[in-house]
Design goal:
- It is a single chain.
- The protein has 4 helices and 2 strands; from the N terminus they run βαααβα.
- It is mainly α.
- Strands 1-2 form a two-stranded parallel sheet.
- Helix 2 (13-50) packs antiparallel against helix 3 (57-110) and helix 3 (57-110) crosses helix 4.
């Protein structure tokens, strides 16, 4: 038998909730990054403005260090935010993937299929092969 895993997965009712949670988290991170960028631009402008005011070298060096430190914090924040978002996405998607795998296994067991292949990777389907999309969708409660 064969199924279209991507099509079935995209129609799982729980997917919309997961996508909304990921979008909310992504937006929160984007706002935090935007705020940090604004703050960085402000610090950079302050540094550039102060460099034309004949300030003592120690003050200029301190401001330069502050700008570099902020830039380092920004890079670290962006990297850790991306990792956190990826981890969140994986943890939210894992139960859906497990549910889909279980439904595929159950359909295979119930119908005595030797194999269920993903139609996205099949180059040819003969006439004696069963399309099990409907059975897996029904197992997952997908009406469409």
């Amino acid at each position: 038998a064969y199924i279209n895993v991507d099509e079935i997965f995209s129609k799982m009712p729980e997917l919309k909730e997961v996508e909304n949670k990921i979008a909310t988290k992504t937006e929160a991170i984007r706002k935090a990054i935007d705020n940090m960028e604004s703050e960085f631009q402000k610090k950079l402008k302050e540094f550039e403005d102060s460099s034309t005011q004949n300030l003592p070298e120690a003050v200029v060096l301190d401001q330069k260090k502050q700008v570099q430190d902020f830039q380092d914090r920004y890079r670290t924040f962006v990297q850790s935010s991306q990792q956190e978002l990826e981890k969140e996405q994986n943890s939210l998607m894992a139960p859906l993937e497990q549910k889909l795998r279980k439904a595929i296994k159950d359909v295979g067991d119930e119908n005595n299929y030797s194999l269920i292949l993903n139609s996205n990777t099949i180059l040819h389907i003969g006439s004696d092969v069963t399309d099990a999309n409907g059975l897996v969708k029904a197992k997952l409660g997908i009406i469409n």
